[in-house]
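Data availability (excerpt). The following record was deposited with the supplementary files.
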Amino acid sequence: MWKAVFVFGSLLLMTSLVAAVHADDGDDAMLMQRCPSFAAWKNAHPELSDKNRAKKIAVAKPTDPVLRQQLLEMARADQAARDAWIKADLKTAGGTDPAVKQLTRVDAANLKKLKPLIERQGFPSPARVGIDGVNAAFILVQHADRDPLFQMRVLPQLEASYQHGLISGQDLAMLTDRTLRAQGKPQRYGTQFISYDNRPQMKLQPTEDFAHVDARRARLGMPKLADYACVLSMYYNKPVVATP
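Predicted structure:
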């Protein structure tokens, strides 16, 4: 289950992916108790789950198993480093220096491997690396913050993949918002939150035309921003401010 995205400097945490959108059945009881509106949305949209998307795309056998394995291994390192940071953050309200350094090292190493792969061969398709390989490639691109120009070059490829039903609208929204914020522009879909190390809360990054953000999210098959924020608060055990 994919989790979070981090940047470092004055901002300690930037969250972009709600794990519960792709959550397994074991999370449903907690969702229903803590975020009933989100749980209702999730139950009303079973077609958006990874499992059902995989059935629709139906890849019998990826044509590039070597690349798939590379992507999965990099993603496992990515998630292990983030799991360690999240545990440290929950204990110390700001993480620990070793956890931060390890996360930075992992992101740098993954980018060094990932960038030439995608620049030579393009963003991979499910036919090539399977749904799990595509998910891994996406999360690695999303975490390539040290090279925003690379992220911007990948974005049009994700837009094309979305139009063909190969990635989720949430994935497209997250990288769109990520690249906009890297340019100092307001985000479009409200996927990016920040947490300063001296404030025990997560706050929405600047968002364009906030009054219509839920309409834009709905067009990409995403829950309302308030529901998204509820799940963030549940998973990261922090108050979440989802208003400008």
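Summary of structural features: The chain has a mean pLDDT of 83.
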